[in-house]
Amino acid sequence: MINILLNGCSGNMGTAFSNYIKNSTDFRLLYGIDKENSHLFNKIQKKPDVIIDFSTPISTFNALNYAVENLIPVVIATTGFSKDEENRIIEYSEAIPIFKSSNMSYGIKIFSDISTYLAQSLQNMDIEIIEKHHKYKKDAPSRNSSYAIQ
Question: Cα(127)–Cα(92) distance, rounded to whole angstroms?
Fold first, then answer.
């Protein structure tokens, strides 16, 4: 059983992930934190195995501070970081494992695979791909690509 602290639990992705965890036998949601109860980082009693972050850049750094103090790995799925914030995340990764992805969409994964195939198959074509999000995305388009930091 993997114990999870979910940062950004009330957003669209946080809600979807919370619902997934509730129906899972492999994961347990120890804490759900959002902007309304971010003070809970100071009151955590049981250390989670991992922090999953679907929040905002400011909230991500609250989670990262807690994670570094307690040596907890973090999955960051938040978008909208500035270049300076991206560099700070890299600095945090010197202390803890961090996996950062600007897009957790299954559709984007499939599109990425298809694009790789098409790029190899259509090398003499001039193709342009434009990133666009649904109208509710707060920081469309997402900045930066997916990467793992160790």
Answer: 37
Is the preceding peptide bond at 48 cis, omega within 30 degrees of 0? no
Q: Is 137 a catalytic residue?
A: yes
Domains located in the chain, CATH noted: 2-123+136-149 (3.40.50.720)
DSSP class per residue in 60-76 = HHHHHHHHHHHT--EEE
> What does the pLDDT look like over 51-82, one tens digit per residue?
999 999 999 999 999 999 999 999 999 888 99
Catalytic residue among 22, 47, 109, 137: 137
Which residues sit opposite 99 in a β-bridge? 75, 148
